[in-house]
Amino acid sequence: MNFVLLAVAVLCMSQPANLIRWAHAPIEVIGFWRLAIATLALAPFAWRARASWLALQTRQRGLHLAAGVFLFVHLWTYVYAAQHTLIANCMAAFCTHPLLVGLGAWIFHGEKPTARLGVSYLLAGLGVWALLSGSMSLDPARLAGDLAGIASAGFYAGYVLLGRSLRKSLDNRAYATGVYAVTAALFFVTGVARGVAWDGQPPVFWLSVAGLGLGVTLGGHAMFSYLLGSMNVNVMTTAKLLEPIFGGLTAWLAFGEPLRARTGLAFALIAGAVVVLVTDPRHPGPMPEED
Description:
The protein is mostly helical.
């Protein structure tokens, strides 16, 4: 059942760049309304689980706040990338995050990478390189967007690792609602500081934001966060490498973004990385519970 839920989460998380493109609004406006909708939707459920948050130690509450900060920077840089480069580029750059999560899991959680995992990461890295090298040579002006996508991957890796630690002692409903509230507040403060316009958005903006807030954030990120408590982090983050396939196909259908031969090669390598890992009979298993 966990793999079915993971597939749903990956499908939902494959569409944010396309929804951002449809929204066509300032980064802070998109981010605030997206997270505000998600926070309001989860608030009643979080209230019922408030006891788990009240039981947290001061250090754990600090980590909860830090997770919100990491998610904010991840989303800000991701929206910037989606607005300044090809959607396929944005998603491929973001796909470097499994390498960073794996490194963090090794350093902070003692999960030394296996040979199979190394092959998987190698294939994924080759796929990302194939996509980025071809696109950057065609249009160097998109470099800022590509780099923002990579930065987004780094902050997402931090968010995943923090979430993995907190999910051992904090109910997912309380965890997700708290993180989303912090992130929404940071988007609002940043938007006010930059003087962005908050009103006058067309109907397509609200449809896109609803898709981001309910589909991507709840069906994707919240589900992913929930599964962190019972699935291996390396399996989950490598499975996310399927996102560029779904996202790139949507961009091709919706915006006419080209799918070049090099793009097909990159997607094949990324998909191969996922297959190498998830077909290992010794992998995955539930992560051990901490005391």
